[in-house]
Amino acid sequence: MVGLSLGYMAFAFFRKWLGWSRGMRESTTAPSNYRMPSMIWVAEVLLQRQLFTLSFSRWFIHILIFYGFLGLALLSAASCILRAAGYFAMSSTLPSFYLHPEGYFFIKVWGDSFGLLLLLGLVMAGMRRLALLQARQISNRMDVILLGLLLSVTLSGFVLEGLRLATMPAEITRYSYVGRLFSPPGTYALKQLQPWLTACWMLHSLLVLTLFVYLPHSKLMHSLLAPVIIFMNAAEEHKREDLYWPEMKKYRGTRSRQG
Amino acid sequence: MARDEKIQGNKIAAGLTRRQLIELNACTRCGECRAWCPVYAQDEREEITAYGKLDSLRRFINGTLPEAGRKNFIEALYECSVCGQCHVVCPVRINTHELWEQARMSLVNAGIPQPEVQIKQLAAIKEFNNPFGKSQNERSYWAEAAWKAGLLKSPVPLWREQPAPVIYFAGCLASYEPELQPVAVQSARLLQEAGVDFAILGEDEPCCVSKLRRMGDSAFREEARKRVDQFTRMGIDTIVASCAGCYKGLYSDYAGLWPRAPKVVHFSQYLDQLLKESRLHFKWKTPLLTTYHDPCHLGRHNQVYDQPRRVLRSVPGVDLVEMPRNRVFSSCCGMGGGLKTVNPEIQHKMAAARVREAESTGAKAIVTPCQTCYLGLLNGAKEARSVVNIFHLNELLVRSICPEVTHESVKTALVRATP
After folding, report:
1. CA–CA separation, B105 vs B113, rounded Å?
2. Confidence of residue A190 (pLDDT cuts 50, 70, 90)
3. Of the four, A204, B63, B152, B263, which is 20 to 30 A from A59 by CA?
């Protein structure tokens, strides 16, 4: 299943690449220097200055989702690498430290923190889309599906963690400060919860794999493409000497739709 | 997917850059472009918005856009003033205005022509060197007539007879359009007042052909190359353009074609320089509360915001109050990108909205340094039945420096001098 969905995702990306390569090559002009485009990249991608200046609430929601998602993705990738390293070199100290109780709390505490950011961001984004007319007007099926999918992945992840924590001693579970909230009351033997754990793991995995399959066709593509486009366009504007870097603070709140 | 649609999609894709094709997938549909689009404010159709156009173009290229969607997309692509507002508010920094122009050209190359009215105008530019289909001999009529009417201190020299380090590039509108000829006369007079050694090209002045780029005519590169060769042969040092569209054409659109380009400045930038050097002297006060309209081609497209404002503030008696949407957020008057040609009604509504915004500031006049915007705002004032005055930046300067060349007096004198 994992291979199939990752393979499909790779195939979908390859098809996208084929589509893009139908265009003219001259788009990638080398910037005269990288300093200014890099500064803009940091401001626009890592700090999301543009959103901040346009709407604080949207910036806050997006930054929660962005860092939550990015953190979880990096942590998952790091965990996979550590497991692989541990598998191929059993004596390696780094994998055994992080994947066993003495260092595992480090991964748990960060995992829960990023998950919490993502969960808060997604809930707020959903509420915003329901509450604000303007946000409702621009929402389409793709927005609803993606938001629902991300929310399901995050929630099922926490429920799975909660179930697992219910079978563990309290001193290990204290670092999973969010996952604990999803834990059923009381202590259980692993055997008791095994069917639930399996079902929940299956559901979570299925949702994650669905996300992989859906990603190339969803607006989540912007998470991969926006950082590239921001740098390329900033470099081109810089070369053309019309790079815009407005003094946004001055114009906050100047938006006025005219009828 | 029909084979023909796929072939057409491939042709359109081949006319765009790879970066632009990636941009079609990078849109987040956040809706920011919709909130700011001055065209959408007048015609609330989703296809008009940048995200709507990006989505339609992507599906067009992939061959999945239905026939009705294609028709709507083409209409929306040309019902855009290419003002660049969506670019500057886009969190992904998608270079929308470049994309729209390139998409127009790409569609034409794929066999989908521009609207009929634009085709006629483009043909006139290529055949007559101006969009009005007039003779090149009439280009410097304004200069001769103004000299005969006593509006200039000395005759304006033609470059071919008396080469000078500075060329005043009036542009097609100020050369031929009676409502705008005063701008050319005032510009020449102000240069004379400052003692600038300048000349005009007269019948050698070509159309900048930036309209070809705006409307997606594939002859743009070739035509622009001819102009670049002409200017290079002449060995010009500085070109001062009084039209923001010509300035964008000569300064930005030619950039890749003109490695040893001379200094190209907009007239407002040049005035700012002359004022800094104390070469212009104000004699009279012009008490007036004004607001400033940023032309898109000067502001958003070329980051020229401060110089025209400095010039305006330097006029004795003039006070400047900003509109809610100013500088990078300045709302377009609708004159650019071929929109006025395709849909004058929308242009009038857009300009009327801008005039109403100016009214809300309490200003008695809207000042702009672009002759095209000036014309557009006049339409807007008429549409909004506003009492706010519309002035070209030159007008306020001449009122304080040489009041004999005010807009009305020049217009009257030129009409009288018409043979």
Report:
1. 9
2. confident
3. A204
